[in-house]
Write a structure and sequence with these properties.
Helices cover about 45% and strands about 15% of the residues. By secondary structure, the chain is α/β, with parallel strands linked by helices.
Amino acid sequence: MTNSINQSIVADMNLAPEGHLKIDWASAHMPVLNRIREQFEKEKPFQGLKVTISLHLEAKTAYLGKVIKAGGAEVTMTHSNPLSTQDDVCAALVEDGITVFAKHNPPPQEYKELLVKALETKPDLIIDDGGDLVSTLHGERQDLLATVRGGAEETTTGILRLKAMQKEGKLQFPMVAVNDAFCKYLFDNRYGTGQSVFDGINRTTNLVVAGKTVVVCGYGWCGKGVAMRAKGLGAQVVVVEVDAIKAVEAYMDGFSVMPMIEAAKVGDYFITVTGNRDIIRGEHYKVMKDGAILSNAGHFDVEVNKPELDALSVAKRTVRRNIEEYQLHDGRKVYLLAEGRLVNLAAGDGHPAEIMDMTFALQALSLKYVNDRYKEIGRQVMNVPYELDEQVARYKLEALGIGIDSLSAEQKAYLDSWAEH
């Protein structure tokens, strides 16, 4: 339906009460973001500005939108994945005065149209997830570039796209690489992805992980978290990598390491977390066990090659919500979770609130930083300043009631000197 007040496009405004409950629950477990909200309410750093946010539209993201709004911004929110959008949360945001253009699982054309509508509000600042806002602005809607001062990017995939644009001299405004901040990848990518991937897999399949072989494709920070959680659930873990250093690290961490074609023969569960395409493809399907379960935790649904799986199948059916069964020519069956999209969000609720508290605190502070300095930063991808990273960590420790030591003047002098022994 279309909301007559702010022209939002959401599925059903009647779902708003349930959405409010979800947002209230998340915000009660996000003390760092609550503290930043208090600061923003006093300082109003975004007063008179328009901010467009493209993220997975669920409760924790919704609360980030409310915090940015508390800073004085006129906020518009849209999706970054068709299956991760929660319609009740979208409706609740509309009631809270935020413009929303998003629905759960719209047709591809409508998905794109809703994203473009969010950009047609002519934002001053953006928060992106996967680079869809930035690529649309620099591609088919360059007419909307003029007002954009800069923004922040959430994911590895998005930062790879941004750096490619910068290298080609096409990036037209500064973007902060939030994904590369310590308080993002050490906690969100590792502990958040690790837990939420298995939240999505377990609630979807209702099958045991203990005793099974879990193949983790990619051993970056997300892959480390997934492998750690699989081991904790009692699985035998196999890591597939293309980076020799990460492969040695996985081996030293106690995991088996092998090429994908060998891992395909032994895996019961497969989880891709690479940010690249065609990680699992035709040659691998041909040697998989009967009953193998495939899932993806990378941003786009290209890591598990679906066209090649379709081509090798003689029948396909949905056997449970978010589980598609593919019957291969020789009678074997393999199962794909959540259409190969982000399994932790498309088949679950995403990262825990306490984890996203730190990530979204970085987003809020980074957005303020780029707004204050966008002219001097220029057209580049920049890292989150260390002082913002440390500030979020300090707020987190305070919320946990944990104190730490500080260096004495003598200790600082010792570290700063080459002559002292």
